[in-house]
Amino acid sequence: MIRLTSAWTEKPIWVNPEHIIDFGEGTCGGKEATYLTTVCDVNQSDTPQYVTESPSEVARKVLEWKLEMERYKAAEIVALTHRASKNNPYMPPLDAQRELEILAGLEEPNHD
Fold it and tell me: How far is it, in rounded angstroms, from Cα 32 to Cα 53?
């Protein structure tokens, strides 16, 4: 998931980058915004979501997420074949997982 900002509420929303079909420049409430069309009916009204991030910022976040997800998958394969031990502390899945959490806006600890 990537964290974006709703143009309607100016609050964070989380979107699965794999579900984004297209996005581009638009307007929301008279202000410039970026529309997102997804494979799911995210807001239950067949209208796109509008976010405050520019189309290039959305593209950057989606690309970062996809690249980090590929890194995570590759690290999992390495971890399955080379388990970390006292002599081999290599833990790439944890590093990649942490990067995905940052991209999703989960960098702060959970205080529940």
Answer: 9
